[in-house]
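Quick one:
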Amino acid sequence: MTTFTKQRLTVSSMVIMLLTGLFVLAFLFPYVYLIMTSLKESAEVISSTPTLIPTVFTLENYRTMFDLLPIAKYFGNSFFTAISSTVISVFLGSLAAYGLSRFSSRLGNMFLLLTLGVRMVPLISVAVPMYGIINQLGLYDTKFALILVYTSINIPFVIWMMIGFFDGLPKELDESARVDGCSRLGAFIKIILPISLPGLATTSIFCYMLSWNDFLMALMMTSTSAKTMPVGLSEFLGAYNLDLGPMTAAAVCFSLPVMIFSIMIQKYIVSGMTMGAVKE
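Output:
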């Protein structure tokens, strides 16, 4: 390799690193600004000359956040409904995807297309009918209602995500498990699911984020007892006031769990997306 070629590669690498750094900075800056704002004093938050670094670091906004609203309750509601709906939808959706992968038929293909069509329907178009059903069942303002809604929304997504992983697994694994005395369900739980852990992790995090971040359904299905964090955050915006400081503090508390969880299972997400995209 000539010196000129090495120089070109070095320049190209530096340009790529610079562009990557700028791209990452563009995404990180709003969140860094959010964190810095949550650590400012109330007067500095609403100052006409905004600054990135607080003049005085304080936890005043975090204390005010808990004084103004029952944030712990909203946080608990969001966590419970997101975890419950994710576990149920991933388990049921994986069962359906496994059946469609192993028992291919014309009816199964029609069902698969139907789930895709359901997934493509905008949530706003089904929000009102879902509200009517939940209200008639007497489940309005309950966590169970949110779990049902989020599960029904996530299951089509789980089916389409997991069927790609199951199609990539050889059917000989199922046959070997059956020879060793496992039932179909036993082979699925003991053999297939452990192998599909990267796919399950990828699918679970997306389902969890959809449930955790949802505002529309939570706004329509709850009023007081089952209210979640996204809806609670909107309460800082009133008709005559805007509590920006406590709102930014609540937003930081709301976003940190998902970010930490995503970082912890990053290797599963990357391997899961690769596994689902590449088939032998």
